[in-house]
Amino acid sequence: MKRIVKSKEFAVFIVLLALMVFFSIASPQFMKSKNFFNIAKQIATVGICSVGFCFVLITGGIDLSLGYQISLDIVIVAVLMNNFGVHWIVACIIGMILGTFIGLLNGFIIVKTHVAPLIVTLSMMTILKGVSYLITGGLAIFKFNDTFVKLGQGTIGGIVPISLLFLVAIIAVGVFILNKTVYGRYFYAIGNNVDAAKLSGVNVQKIQTMAYGLCGFFTAIGALLLLSRLNSAQSSTGDGYEFSCLTACVVGGVSSNGGKGTVLGAIIGCMIVGVLENGLAIMNVNEYIQEVIKGVVLLAAVIYDTMSLLKNEQVKKMKTINAEN
Question: Tens of pLDDT along 16-43?
Fold first, then answer.
């Protein structure tokens, strides 16, 4: 019990509860069950993408192309269904393959060229944005198969959103990969000390590429749910999702420096972002002010993460000095 209370996840969960109490006092509409299910639908895509983003951050990387991966995925799937009459299941499979390929391509370029992940994925973001707009010409694509639309808009028993079940399933998969597989241990090892991981026999390039591939795969699933919920595809749809996922992960205790964090923490962080956005919207706070607040939250989380890392390093040095004396 003491271990749970002292964990970062518990501290972040307390922040989540505090936010919920604040917004419930500020607006009676916030505590309605309908609003909570709306939040669940809204955070499904960010939550699923954050699981993949968590893997990349833990290995010490970053993927700024995530937003326009979402855009390209939904545009391709929409065109396949509407323009070519491809069955929605086949179109979704193609979308997931495309997402995984983009992720693997990001990882491959990074490990083979040794260019900083920030630069590679920022460049990829621009490429994906251009390709997406070339396909659509900036126009929206509407109306899809009713069964497909139910994935993002439908509920079970008129209560539980289907998208929430997808999110829970992806969380379970993410937790399993990080905690029950050797690859999860490799992710942490690389993020903590890449040189030590190499000396231990870890195929660092393979594992880093895999992390980006998983990120692309989960991003594609999140994109499909988003397309289903919106029932329309636009090239601008995914813009900003990389920021939301980064904020969710860092706020949830996933270190931007690599080597630390959990899927559970990332999801709690995602819930904080979702509750914050929903609560501010209900209170009719100007959308630009909302952007400022989210930016401040991310900056504060990154500063806290960096200061904690520096403090831990200082403690380790002091212990080493004391042991030598």
Answer: 999 999 999 988 888 887 888 888 888 9
